[in-house]
Amino acid sequence: MTHLPDEEVRQNVATLRLDLGARAAGYWWLAGNWLEQISFVASPALREEVAQRFAEATRSIPTSKLELGIVRAALTGVPAISRVDQQGPDDTGSGYWLHAFDATRSVAVPLHDLKGKVRAVIVVALAENDLDDETVVEQILAAVRNWSPLV
After folding, report:
1. CATH of the domain at 34
2. What is the C-alpha separation between 143 and 45, in angstroms, rounded?
3. In-domain check, residue 1
4. CA-to-CA distance for 48 and 44, rounded, in angstroms?
């Protein structure tokens, strides 16, 4: 998997967010026991203070935070879907942010290198829409294939 220049990555994530109609989209690189934020793009409709808090809170995510869909995707190597209606009222993980984003679900998709090892995770937060989870995963993977020949 190749690294793209920061602005190109940000633009790719922004385009993905627009194409899916997502409330937010982000890209994290797996570095040992941490997920490091490469890019996070929020919808202009998302309150700026919420977007800033999320971006700061997720700059570096330890893979021990199993309550987060992004971590589950990174550790299992398969997409993780988090739904606001499946989270408890005291949830401090994905459910907390889904509520803050006015989203109904997040879809976290692991990206593998040519040897099958997870290298990164793309996550989108979606409000209610007509796209099923599988279609969202397929669209994310199709978009990412245009970013890097190794994904």
Report:
1. 3.30.450.40
2. 23
3. no
4. 8
